[in-house]
Write a structure and sequence with these properties.
By secondary structure, this protein is an alpha/beta fold. It has 10 helices and 14 strands. 29% of the residues lie in helices and 19% in strands. The longest helix has 15 residues, at 50-64. It binds S-adenosylmethionine.
Length: 339
């Protein structure tokens, strides 16, 4: 008989939002994430196959109460089987909401097939509108490709389009207002993410991070930001209404800030994560993870895998601990966890 026990932890949080990393590889080298020369990639045989991803996603939806799935990476558009993986997830009952976090390079080609396969919407990372700065920041000359991908996502109806931006002091922190203007003009929702200690080089420094308070102060010079009456729930972004601006569908325009470092939202966290090599992580920052791959490849049943997944989530700590003096960065960088 099928058990439907949810992914609950000992503090009473229930994980219903699954982040699935489909690859640790990326075609950009954003300085806050990956060194210019890349990283030693996960060996091919360690990566879950498309069918294995499909099986774990099915177990998550059918047995563990997952309602929302975000495919990520690395860069998920580099995963050859992406369209098929999305289509398999879209065929599940109850139908999960499906989204993708991407740098949008290649989305000009893939937006339509992904939408047809059942993808609902996209989060697109964009840290600058300046082509030369894009090269300094991401070590690749690809701004035009990203912008073409964003336009294609909109044309394919992968909306609402959310744009993610990481601001770095002295690098792109003067673009908070231009990036918001870009998003408002096009009806996209911009969210600034505080830089987190998840870079492969372990170079993160608290005093170098542009804080939520600084971001809001900068935006406040150009826009009137009003408290958002909408329920935040487990959403990582705190949002504000941008006075005098509306989306094309008439809803009020919003801007968000994900203040993971200065205002952690762990008490409301509803996320569970699956890495590209089949490990469950109960937190971006956890030191421990539970591999499902070995059990799956040794012939484990759906029930075995569901039980292991539940056990992994039960052990979730109350908070990520970034602000504890004893905090240790996890061994995996963001690109190998799935952001
Ligand atoms: N390649 C895809 C993309 O660019 O969106 C998906 C993976 S990327 C790791 C997901 C998000 O994590 C991006 O928005 C990126 O800016 C963000 N990110 C990466 N490293 C980060 C860090 N150290 N702190 C905060 N955000 C980070």
């Amino acid at each position: 008989m099928r058990s439907r026990a949810a992914l609950i932890d000992r503090y009473g949080r229930v994980a219903t939002d699954l982040r699935v990393s489909l690859t640790d590889r990326c075609n950009l080298r954003c300085t806050y994430c990956m060194p210019a020369e890349g990283l030693p990639w996960l060996p091919g045989p360690d990566l879950l196959t498309d069918d294995e991803v499909g099986r774990l996603v099915r177990i998550a939806v059918e047995q563990l109460g997952v309602r929302e799935i975000r495919f990520t990476g690395g860069e998920p558009l580099l995963r050859r089987g992406l369209v098929g993986i999305v289509a398999a997830a879209a065929a599940l009952e109850p139908r999960p909401r499906l989204s993708l976090t991407t740098n949008a390079i290649g989305l000009d080609r893939l937006a339509r097939p992904l939408a047809d396969a059942g993808l609902d919407r996209v989060n697109i990372s964009l840290d600058t509108l300046d082509p030369a700065r894009f090269v300094r920041l991401a070590h690749r000359r690809r701004l035009d490709d990203t912008l073409a991908g964003i336009a294609a996502a909109e044309a394919a109806g992968l909306t609402p389009i959310k744009i993610n931006t990481v601001l770095m002091r002295g690098v792109n922190d003067d673009e908070a207002v231009p990036l918001l203007a870009f998003a408002l003009d096009r009806g996209y929702e911009l969210r600034f993410i505080e830089q987190m200690p998840l870079d492969a080089g372990h170079t993160w420094r608290r005093d170098n991070m542009v804080t939520a308070a600084e971001i809001l102060e900068r935006l406040g010079r150009a826009y009137d930001l009003l408290p958002d009456p909408a329920e935040r729930g487990g959403a990582p972004a705190e949002t504000w209404l941008v006075a005098g601006h509306v989306l094309p569908d008439g809803r009020p325009a919003r801007v968000g800030v994900i203040a993971s470092v200065t205002q952690p939202f762990c008490r409301a966290c509803d996320r569970t994560r699956l890495t590209a090599d089949g490990a469950v992580r109960n937190c971006l920052f956890s030191q421990e993870e539970t591999s499902l791959r070995a059990v799956m490849r040794a012939g484990g049943s759906d029930e075995d895998l569901a039980r292991l997944w539940r056990e992994a989530m039960w052990g979730k700590l109350p908070g990520h601990g970034i602000n504890d003096p004893a905090f240790l960065q996890p061994a995996r960088p963001m690109s190998a966890i799935g952001g």
